[in-house]
Structures are given as structure tokens and as C-alpha cells.
Amino acid sequence: MTTRLAASLYRFSGAMNPAGAPLGKNWYDSFQLTVNKRFSHGLSANMNYNYSKTLELMSSPDVFNRQLGKNLGTFDLPHQLRLTVQYEVPRIQSSLPVLSNRIVSYALSGWGLGVYANYQSAPLVGRPSSSGTTPLSQFLGRPAPPATIPAQLKKGPDGQPMNPWSIDWTDYDGKHHTDPIDVNCHCFDPTTTVVLNPTAWTNVPDGQWAANQSSIRNFRTFRTPTENVNFSRNFRMNERVSLNVRVEFSNIFNRTQFPTSLTVPGGINLGNFSNAPTKFTTGANTGLYSGGFGTMVTPTSGTTGQRAGTFIGRITF
Q1: 12 CB contacts (<8 Å, ≥6 apart)?
Q2: pLDDT tens-place string over residues 218-236
Q3: Is the pLDDT reported for residue 2 higher than 90?
Q4: Do residues 207 and 136 touch, judged by C-beta distance below 8 A?
Q5: Rounded Cα gap, residues 109 and 97, in angstroms
Q6: What burial letters (b/e) apply to 148-183, b meaning 16+ CB within 10 Å?
């Protein structure tokens, strides 16, 4: 019996295929504030604010010092603010001749308004890739293929890292700017503007370790607020049957929403910072950017998330 059991255990262990050592770590620290208020006459409101920082240690640029790999988490969002408001018109009871009428009171009562808004920090932008030929990491097989080594920000005359955003851009009014662009200002044409500064980056020097951060905390792409509104009406047929009719609108202000992905048209093109921008030479998009470092290729895919409405009806009995 002992022999058969050992053979069975051996066959079971041979079927396991571990993918790697369990060395990953995560840290999440936050300050959370919640405010709830239920007012009289059918009005209630909720506010939730979250200030946080997410860190992770999944790999390291220095195989002799794993702690250098402690880095911002992929989904690090420092600020998150959510607002919810709900209101329903109560049954009107008034001594005024018009409002005291049963039909008028029924027609004006039961209407509802709901608002949900979410504002949060934009997703992180990864650093562009380095094309250095012999950084020290490559001699030790780090990072493992097909991963790439991220480039490093140059240091300016003040000894601080240079700003990664473009300092050579033109706004909608035709004014040329030499200050860093704000990709959330809605003041430039994304089809004709390079939003990243290629001169701010440098390859990892030969024979040196790459920088430990794969992301920079204030290097973020487009903010995409969520603003939804619904209008409703409750019709009470009798004591047991009621009908609820609701119209819901997403992106109620119809804000332009650019894709936040950095690998598909519409996002910010990264890759290597030496990739010069290219333009369409034929077709309807002639003269607009088609690719290259720091461009936003919106003509080929357009934008998404336009205002949309949904009609909902529900019977309760």
C-alpha cells in the first residue's frame, strides 16, 4: 500500500507546472472620506473621496538588489472623487386650489432625478523603450524577453529630470507654446500635435543599470470623467402594482473621450523616442499624423463614448 501511494503522489507532482517564484509584493495606502446626507422631501446625496498610492515589487532592474524594483502599481490612481445625488418629488399636498387638485397632484408627483459623477486621476503613461545596445541588465538576462528596458529622463540644467511633455506645440488659436503641454486642456488639435518631447529622453548608458521606475507618478494620459444622469417617473396603478419609467444618459455633457491605451490608434504613441512622426500622404487624412513617437493617431479610429441614452420600463406587482 505504501508503494502504490508513493507512486500516485509522484504522478500528481509531475503534472504541476509552476510558472515562477512567489516573490511578488503589493502595497496599497489610502485616505478615504465618505459623506452621506439624507435631506427631507426626497433628496439624498453621497460623496466619496479616496487619496491613495499603489506600489508593487514584481521584478527588479538589478538582480543583486531586488528592492530597487519597488515601483508604482499599474493601476495607481492618486485621486478618486465620486458624487451621487437622488431626488424624487414627493406627493404634493397643498391648500392652493390648483395643487390640491387630485389630477394635478398626481401629474406633478413621483418624478425622479439621479446624478452620478466620477472624477479621478488619469492612467499612468509608461516610459518609452530604450535602444541602448549594452546596458548592464542585458548581460544578466534582465528583463526577460520579450520585455524591453525603459528609457530614462535626461536631467536639465537644474539637475532635475526634464519634463516629458512637448514644449513645441500650437493651440487652436494658432499661438505657439514653449511651455509643457497639458493633454487635458482641450486646447490643441490631437491630429496635428506631438504631445511628447523626444529630446527629454535618453537610452540607458552602456554598462549601467536601467532606472528602477517603469512609470513616473505625474506622467499620466487623458482623464476621462464619468457623468451620468437619469430621469424617472413612478406610476402607482393600485396598492400592489406600480410602473417605473426611466431614461438614462451616459456622458451627459458629450465630452470628447480619447482612448487611454498606448498601443492602439487614438492613444499616445510610445515605442522608442527616436521614431520620428509620420503623416498621411494620401486620402482624406493627408497632412495629419499617422504614427511616430508622441503622436495621437485619432483619424484612423475616431473617438468613443459619445453621449448615449437608454429607455427602461419596469412593472412591479
Answers
A1: none
A2: 888 888 899 999 999 988 7
A3: no
A4: yes
A5: 16
A6: bbbbbbeeeeeeeebbbbbeebeeeeeeeeeebbeb
pLDDT digit string, tens, across residues 128-151: 888 777 776 666 655 544 456 788
If one counts every other C-beta atom within 10 angstroms of the C-beta of residue 214, the result is 20
Q: Range of 92's domain?
A: 23-316
Task: Single out the residue of 180, 210, 132, 171 nearest to residue 294, CA to CA.
Answer: 180
Number of domains in the chain: 1
Decide: 67 and 57 in contact? Cβ < 8 Å. Answer: yes
- Report how far residue 129's alpha carbon sits from residue 203's, in angstroms, rounded to the nearest whole number: 8
Model confidence pLDDT, tens digit, residues 195-208: 999 999 988 887 77
Distance of alpha carbon 265 from the chain centroid? 16
Q: Could you give the 3-state DSSP secondary structure of residue 171?
A: coil
The mean pLDDT value of the chain amounts to 81
* Residue with cell string 504614427: 291
29 with 53: CB under 8 angstroms?
yes
Reduced to 3 states (helix: H, G, I; strand: E, B; else coil), residue 300 is coil
pTM beyond cutoff 0.70: yes
Q: How many residues does the chain have?
A: 317
Residue 11 inside a domain? The answer is no
Residue 51 near residue 81, CB atoms below 8 Å: no
Residue 8 is assigned to a structural domain of this protein: no
Lookup: cell for 69: 524594483
Q: Which of 177-191, 197-211, 282-296 has the highest mean pLDDT?
A: 177-191
